[in-house]
Amino acid sequence: MSDDRLFELLSLDATHGLSDAEERELESLLAQNPDVSRDDFALAAAAFDLALLEEPDQELPASIRKSLASTGGAGIVLFGQPASSRVSSNRPPSRAHWFPIGLAAAAVALVALGTMLWSEKRDPMQQLMANAPDVVRATWTIVDAAKLMYPDVSGEVVWSDARQAGYMRFRNLPVNDPSKSQYQLWIVDSKRDKHPVDGGVFDANADGEILIPIDSKLRVDAPAAFVITREQPGGVVVSAGPHLLIAAPAKG
Amino acid sequence: MCDVGLADSRRRGRYRCERRWCTQDFARPLQLYADVSSPQTEPILHRVARGEERAVEACMDAYGPLVWALSRRMSPSNEDAADAAQEIFIDLWTKAARYDPAIASEKTFVAMIARRRLIDRLRKRGRRPQAQSLTAAADVVATSVDRVMVQDEAGRVSRLIDQLKPQQKQVIRLAVVEGWTHTQIAERLDIPLGTVKTQVRRGLQRVRDALSAGGEEAQ
To answer: What is the domain extent for residue A17?
Structure first.
């Protein structure tokens, strides 16, 4: 296979995205050309775009900033902290000395409840569940063979066909070294052929809880199961397994 | 010294830092399209990857307008653009550790992550952004590349764009900026499909080489 085909696929990837078959072909060609990065042409297209882009004249809307600020970096910061620490950090400690103990306790409870509701309201997963009419949800189950390596993992996944968007939450997912391996999501779509849809790769950090947006490479219309594997950096087109976590959604 | 990176806009003969709270201004343009993370400062994305809470705000300050501009351009509605912008920032934060200053500027990396997410969204929805008329597209090419660029990555890319033949410049712009398919471009410009593919591929290869050259210079 010539470099021309590799570069043609990379340029398509950078400008319009690839079909399932093209994805497989590109992965195969990249495996044969380890000195070529999939990002090369995507960065080139981005640089070209920037060079021609008029200087942006609008700030990011305040509503989006607030929503994003509350996620604190999608689990990297706030979501990685225990919920209790978020609550206490928002409560002025000196107030407790100004009120009778019972009143202070009630105030603390109200602040805690308010903060929790505020956080949930701005959590992208909660937002999707609140706003999309067709969200499916499922909790992660550890595959028997993986229970030794992944004993304490928990969390859930939500997906909306209408929005073609979803999120995964994990607690205690073992940290990976992105230079050696990455987690990869697969979506089994009952309306598709036997091949699951690549849902994107992601990394776990040491914060304990992470929230990951689903990055499905193809349209998903009827997710029957979400499966997590651990693959080479950048992921693979066809996984040889093993499966680590599975979530089978029910309408909810 | 302003730590933003000297991204300026011209006002009454002076050049000001774009940040709202920054009072720095300059008598001459320093770096149009400059990266907000200069080589002397740690990239914002690395601070995000380290879990520095203030870096999340700094990231939105620095790249919010860019992400919003790309989201609006490549989304069918403002509501869709808002969803897209949110997804892009979450993508950015989860992939922040991948950013390598030796390969491209932080701004280019951010634009790449944004474009990938937006292209994915368009593909899944089976839609393309509304195509402009060819005349309008060509006009934007002509005016945009007239900008003064100096010494940074965008400058190198802009100079390279200036060197492209007009048709190739137009073809790449329609593919990269307007999101037209190769087939659409071939039909509208009345040139062979193979020519379109070759021009896009070679153009991006040249830009990639220009980025690589910059990375080598920086090392």
So the answer is: 3-52
